[in-house]
Description:
Layout: E1 3-8, E2 10-12, E3 18-25, E4 33-39, E5 46-52, E6 57-59, E7 67-72, E8 77-82, E9 91-99, E10 102-105, E11 109-113
Parallel strand pairs: 2-11
Antiparallel strand pairs: 1-3, 3-8, 4-5, 4-9, 5-6, 7-8, 9-10, 9-11
Amino acid sequence: QVRLVQSGGGLVQPGGSLRLSCVASGSTFTFYKMGWYRQAPGKQRNLVATIDNNGRTFYGDSMKGRVTISRENAKNTVDLQMNNLKPEDTAVYYCNGYHDEQDYWGQGTQVTVSL
């Protein structure tokens, strides 16, 4: 059974930084694409960033310029470095892995940006 397990997140002051990590276990393949999404209360889940197995990245408008996504294919891990965080970045962040037309999701990690 494939599982995505997230770590990181928590409470940070505005202007601060956080790093989220995600590791896939139980897979016999390398995900074609991995990424991060977020969902604020009462809102739909939105894309933050993705990276494919060739290292090509895509960033959503909401955090572009403030986040960097990276991955290690051999370890099936994906990280998200977030800088200059703002209160509106408060949300639950989800790791995603996509392979063979199937999505896999992490358990979600709360990120709260507040004084």
